[in-house]
Amino acid sequence: MSGLEWLAVAFSAFSVWLTVKQNLWCWPVGLVGVLLFGWLLRDNHLYSQMALQGVYAVLQVYGWWQWTRPDSVREARKVTLLAPAQVHLGLLAGLLMSVGLGAVMSTWTDGQQPWIDAIITGFSLVAQWWMAQKRVQCWALWIVVDLVSVGLFLWQGLYLAAGLYALFTLLAIQGLREWRRDPALVAAA
């Protein structure tokens, strides 16, 4: 376990905890975490997830903006539920991204476990997008993605990262519970 892995884990864990609490600092803290994780994943030849960290960096900025932008209806984004059709569309998008990325990574890179790496990446993008939109269903998808990530990181020998993703699983369960109970929760239009 390197110092880089320790830092990436610390920033990432704190960021997810802040997200569960709907604290706006989750986004800048998360930005530092994803940049550190990108570096760590590059060193371990997990290229899909390394690229994912770059997308997360952009989504950290987007999420911060989404959670704070005032408009004529509300002061900041409220927790909402996705309609079933939106859930299905999001999961289909995750599947299509996973297949496309897996094909690219297994053909043109020396990536470790390119298909599992791609599946984690494709569905993580959907979960992160839903999180930036404050959709309750993001947490259920994170639970699945985090559990698969634990297995991949254990296989890769990244034990601290595996522990972090086990913690993420617990935080996602807590996030699902708390966001479902949010008094501002509304169904999607």
From TrEMBL:
One of its GO terms (cellular component) is plasma membrane. The keyword Aminoacyl-tRNA synthetase does not apply. Transmembrane segments: none annotated. GO terms for molecular function: nicotinamide riboside transmembrane transporter activity. Keywords: Cell membrane, Membrane, Transmembrane, Transmembrane helix, Transport. Required for nicotinamide riboside transport across the inner membrane. InterPro entries: NMN_transpt_PnuC. It comes from Pseudomonas bharatica CSV86. It is a multi-pass membrane protein. Belongs to the nicotinamide ribonucleoside (NR) uptake permease (TC 4.B.1) family. It is found in: Cell membrane. This is Nicotinamide riboside transporter PnuC. Its main location: membrane.
